Amino acid sequence: MTREPTDPRPVSARTARAYSSGHGRHGTITGTASVSAARAVPSPEPESPTRASPEAGAVRDLPAEDLLEVRTIVRRVIGSRVRDRHLVDDLVQETLTRVLASWERIDPATLVPYAITTARNVVASTWRQVDTTERNLHRIVDLLPVERPEDVVLDRESSGAVAHALTRLSDRERDALLAHDVEGRDLASLARDLHTSSGALAAQLKRTRARLRVEFLLAMDQSQPPTSSCRPVLLALSGGDRRRQLELDVAGHLLGCTYCTELGQPLAGRSRGDGSTRIAVATDGDVVLARQTGRALAADLGFGATDGTVIATAISEVTRNIVKFAGTGEVLVRRVDEPARCGLRVVARDAGPGIPDVEQALVDGHTTYGGLGLGLPGCRRLMDDFEITSAPGRGTTITMAKWRSTGRTSG
Q1: If one looks up domain 276-405 in CATH, what number appears?
Q2: Contact yes or no for 96/73 (Cβ under 8 A)
Q3: What is the mean pLDDT of each run of 10 residues along the chain (411 residues)?
Q4: What is the pTM of this model?
C-alpha cells in the first residue's frame, strides 16, 4: 500500500476542533456502529465442504402441527406470568429449544405437559436472575454529576486525534475535505476550482473520509497495527469497498486478528451493501441477538410461525457452539432471492479449535457439548440446506438456509 507523505505543516487545533464539532462527537470519522447490524464481509469459498441438502421443508420427526400447537400453549403459559412482550418471546424460544432437543425421547401423549413444565421452569429461573439483579442494583448506582471533568480531557484527546489524522492526508486531500466539510463549499464549484468532475471529487472525498476515520482511530488508540495487513483491512472496512475486502480476505483476517476486530468495530457498520446483518458473537447475549435477528428476517420474508421458530432454534445452536468452543466468532444473516423462491441464509464462523471428525459430528444423536442442545445433526434436519467446513486448528464455518416458494417463474 502506498502511504501518502506526511504534511510538514502543523494543523491547528482550531481546524481539528472545527472538523470534529461540525460532524458530531466523532462524526464522519467513526461513523455509527451497531451490534445487531454490523458490517458483513463475505467468507472465502470453502475448500472441502461437507454438504447436506434435504428436500425443502423436510423436518424429520418434527410435525409442524405439533410444534405450532406446543408453541401456542407455551406462549400462553409464559404470557400469563410475564408482562414484557420481548421477554416473553425470548422465554418461549428458550422453552421450544429445550423441547425440540428432547422431542424424540418424549411420549407424544406427554408432549404438552412436558412443554408446560419446561416453560414454568424457564420462567422461574428467569425470575431468580431478575431478583438477584434487583437486590444488587444499589451497588452500581452512578453518583457522579452529569458534567464531568473527564469530558474536557476526552474532548481534547479527540481534537488532538483529529489533528494528527489530518496530517496523514496529502495536501490535496486535506484541502478538499476541509473546504467541503468544514467551509461548506458545494461539490460543483469545488470541483471546478480543482479542475475535476463532481463525480471524481465525490469519490475522492469518500476515500479521504475512509482514511481519516482509520487514522483517527489509530491516533485515539495510540498504537500501531501489529501486522502490515491491518491498515489495508481497516481501510477496506472504513470505505465499504467490497471488492477490496474480498481481495484481502477481510473476514478471515478479522477472525484471527483481535486488534483489527476491536479497533474496526466502529468501521464495520459502514461496509454493508447487500442487505445482510453481521452479529459479532462472544457472549450468551449475542446468542439471543442472533436468533432474534433470524426470526425477524424470517417474518419479513413471509415465513410462518413454525418455520420462524425452526430457523431461530438452528441459529441458537450454531451460535452457542461458537461461544462455548471458540470464544468469539460471527454470524451473518441475509436474505436470498431466486426466480421461484426466496430464503434466509445463515453463515456462522469462528477461528476456534475446529472439529476433528466432521462426519462423526453429523451422526444423529451426537451433540457437540453433551447438553440439551440439538447438535449439528438437529440443525441439519431443521434447515433445507446445510454445509460445514472445519479442520483442527483452522476454525469452523457453517452455512445453512431455509427456503420458501414464491410461486414466480423465471419465464
Answers
A1: 3.30.565.10
A2: no
A3: 44 48 41 34 43 42 73 91 85 87 78 89 86 66 52 68 85 87 83 87 87 85 86 84 80 79 68 65 86 88 88 92 88 88 91 86 64 72 92 88 75 46
A4: 0.48
